[in-house]
Write a structure and sequence with these properties.
Blueprint: E1 2-7, E2 10-15, E3 27-31, E4 36-41, E5 44-50, E6 72-80, E7 88-91, H1 96-105, E8 114-116, H2 126-129, E9 139-140, H3 143-152, E10 157-162
Parallel strand pairs: 3-10, 8-9
Antiparallel strand pairs: 1-2, 3-4, 4-5, 6-7, 6-10, 7-8
């Protein structure tokens, strides 16, 4: 999308998502302690976003309802353009280790962990929601950040979630 804006005696052009075709994201890295999601391509940080996490974010997710975001290596395996939040991309939690740990504790590992935008209808106050950890264990970004992540990240991209 291009938007040309006349400004006094000159004009300039704003291009939405510049150079998307030239940027290939081969890893998504999340640093929970820094509340940061990075898109990595060829070993370089291409984009960086502030995030909100689950209401009890410290530590690895152990069971359904613990409000923790998992830690470890996963894959972004499918997406939902019509989710209850502004777009969502699914994280492949639980993996076999997560399932085995939950079974040993006799609990449900949980699931449906996503990277997503703000709840539908509340995108206008996303900047405020990003100041607190409010999800049930997902990774939340603003709607505009989600649009960019959606455009840059393909299904099958690995995601590393670190403390």
């Amino acid at each position: 999308m291009r938007l040309t804006i006349p400004w006094a005696i000159c004009a300039f052009t704003i291009t939405a998502f510049p150079a998307l075709a030239a940027e290939r994201v081969d890893l998504v890295r999340v640093d929970k302690s820094e509340r940061r999601l990075e898109l990595i391509g060829d070993g370089k940080v291409l984009r960086s976003y502030g995030i909100a996490l689950g209401g009890d974010p410290v530590g690895h997710k152990h069971q359904e309802g613990d409000q923790r975001t998992p830690e470890g290596s996963y894959v972004l395996d499918w997406r939902n353009p019509n989710s209850i939040a502004h777009k969502s991309i699914h994280i492949s939690y639980p993996n076999t280790d997560d399932l085995a740990g939950a079974k040993a504790r006799n609990v449900d590992a949980g699931g449906m962990i996503m990277i997503h935008g703000q709840p539908n209808g509340y995108g206008w106050w996303g900047w405020l929601l990003q100041l607190v950890d409010w999800t049930d264990g997902c990774i939340a970004v603003t709607d505009s950040d989600m649009d960019e992540i959606w455009a840059l990240v393909a299904d099958g991209t690995p995601i590393e979630i670190e403390r």
